Amino acid sequence: MPLSDRQSDATTIADSARVAGPSRARRMWDSDFGYAFRRAPVAMISFAVVILLVLAALLAPWIAPHDPFNPATLNLMNGFTPPMQANAFTGDFFLLGTDDQGRDVFSTILYGMRISLFVGFAAVFLGLVIGVTLGLLAGYVGGWAETIIMRVADVQLTFPAILVAMLIFGIAKGVTPPEYRDQMAIWVLILAIGLSDWVQFARVVRGATLVEKNREYVQAARLIGRTPFAIMLRHILPNVLNPVLVIATISLALAIIAEATLSFLGVGAPPTKPSLGTLIRIGQEFMFSGEWWILFFPALTLLALALSINLLGDWLRDALNPKLR
């Protein structure tokens, strides 16, 4: 290829790169949202803590020194080893100590956090899908559909969410065959928390839909023959996602706490797949006998996770509120 042609091709590539501009991540970082994030140290610290804990849970099989749920790796002689000390009988060292069965507390926290995060994300997703669907339907269709949906939501709001979750969990576990209850316990827990958490999504989406359905772009979509389902899905839904994102973030922290509460009460995750709530329930049995670390470290992890997600949700609520810009 002649030199002039190669120079021309290089110039064309350089021009294309300039036209393409910065990457999407760079544009996000330089946007008003990114600027607000950089100016909020609490949000940055909370985001870093959440990312650190989520990565630690996802990488638990590679990070955890032991597999706490493999009976073949347990040694009862390691039981009740204090943190940062070697066991007096075996000489094994454990960073955060061990519980009554000789399980490494650090490893149990990593594996337990996987269960808590999975239940939290899955329950919020279930509540989001149900709430957004019913909220769009109530706000756009109106009439008897809106009346039924919102009256059911009002009735559910009169009861504490944890009681609704316990009721749903009890009913779902009662209809599950006994031989499958331990296997289905996590899924029943997700169903219980998700069905107790859809009301907030439905109420917010309904209010936003009532405003959006009278806008000009919705009227134009009706004039060109768009079906109600297409209008709700492709036109109204993208414009009501900001408050849904905020509610989902805050609901994630509440779902994790609800799972921990149910597991602490003994109606959540089974002992074979303990979550942070189950570990706290086990630890509180030994708190007054001097083995404080069995309760303290799982409780501290749950506090850090829930508080960081909640603070991040509070910041998102302020950052996405156009009245505060």
Automatic annotation (TrEMBL):
Main subcellular localisation: membrane
PROSITE patterns reported for this sequence: ABC_TM1
Topology relative to the membrane: Multi-pass membrane protein
The organism of origin for this protein: Citreimonas salinaria
Annotated compartments: Cell membrane
Assigned keywords, A-Z: Cell membrane, Membrane, Transmembrane, Transmembrane helix, Transport
TM region(s), chain numbering: 42-64, 115-140, 152-172, 184-205, 240-265, 292-316
Domain ABC transmembrane type-1: 113-313
UniProt xrefs under SUPFAM superfamilies: MetI-like
One of the protein's GO biological processes: transmembrane transport
Alphabetical list of Pfam families matching this protein: BPD_transp_1, OppC_N
The protein's name in its UniProt record: Peptide/nickel transport system permease protein
Family statement drawn from the similarity comment of this UniProt entry: Belongs to the binding-protein-dependent transport system permease family.
GO cellular component annotations of the record: plasma membrane
